[in-house]
């Protein structure tokens, strides 16, 4: 998860530095120019002149925004850009004294509620979470969707099922047995004391007064949606790969396996590989894609450079001098995700002669 931390005061900057220690990869801290030198330069810091410009940029660039400032400021600044709970980044607000952390936006799909709990525990703050299902302690289907990288369809069914849950109704879960990751989803639901029903072929007819969640391939979802049924379809997992010249297939497969393990998945969960066109003849990379049985796409350095600029990706001087661009794995994965972009499951991670980034498409 790519994270931006924003603050406006010395106290806010210091809290941002503490919060960054609990954020994957440390995140990027955005501070006003007048606060230059207020925290250690060991952090990844960007100084700005106008908060409004930074808010606009970070909202589309990052998976999560942590704002150490007044809630009112954040709400007014974000209002023009809020689009949908399915696509907006997680947004959290902390007071600069670190007493409260508020899950403000994208609590379920975007993961703001879970991130709020995690960061509040790290700095001993009180988490403020207002989504009804969380307050009452029931597990909402869109929470499971967020955890398992599943896309809810249709959006309107989320409210129908969550309302039913709050009224004491039970939700039945079904999984298409021909889904490649069916055993994984079944195990994850079982860990939450949910006994899913497996089916093959046609979708079982909905029972009288039954509310249900069906995990299946997107292409199999009916065009007409039954109002008490929420379909959860797998998002593609994109693996961006950068590597040294002459690296072996074994090293690439090992790196992909270790990277997937870091997010609790198997390499079989990868849907597509992506890299720079500079690596299109790299035998080890081509062989790894063939072994996995997955397509690999190579993108021109101009497109990769555009993604680096668009998302403010960190670059390596060595890689830039070697192949012309300073970030391959993250940028190539974003190229493969297309205009809608994606949520970073694992930022660029270096293995032996291989760099991997994992991205869930939005």
From TrEMBL:
In this chain the CobE/GbiG C-terminal domain maps to 237-358
Q: Which residues form the Cobalamin synthesis G N-terminal domain?
A: 54-134
Choose any GO biological process term that the UniProt entry carries and state it.
cobalamin biosynthetic process
What PANTHER family is this protein classified in? Answer: COBALT-PRECORRIN-5A HYDROLASE
What name does UniProt use for this protein? Cobalamin biosynthesis CbiG protein
Species name:
Centipeda periodontii DSM 2778
